[in-house]
Amino acid sequence: MHRPTFGIAALAVLAACGGEQPPAASPQQAAPSTTESTTTTTTTTAVETTWSRDMPKEHQVAFMKTRVVPAMRPVFFGADASRYADFGCATCHGPEFKVPSDHLPRLTLKDGQITAFADKPAVAKFMAESVVSKMASAMGMAPYDPKTGKGFGCAGCHAVDMK
Prior knowledge:
163 residues; alpha+beta; globular
């Protein structure tokens, strides 16, 4: 999977979107007080409150179904009810359930700016103002902070090409 590395200057320009990937944390780092039980008809899975790529696959699926989809469905549905009427896993992961950065549109950073703000200003504004903060919260992370270069932003879901 392609994960771009950004320089300090590039991170500052991604203020509206963010550029850092979610930090990896081991499942052992989740204290019992940071989990909730989710019961399915056959198993019970502890659902962490902070996303980690290091979680076992079944924990990742439970996390997305329990935390991300319910938080993000109303955000996208509110923006375009007809387009996102069937919002769910495939919206971000595609019909083949790929990593979002391999399915979602690639973003381009050119001359210190994400080109989507010029190419598709309404979509870029919606993503920057509505999606980033809600998704960061759903992932159990802070939104991207350009001062520190840390937090969840555009590159948490989209691949970002530097030009």
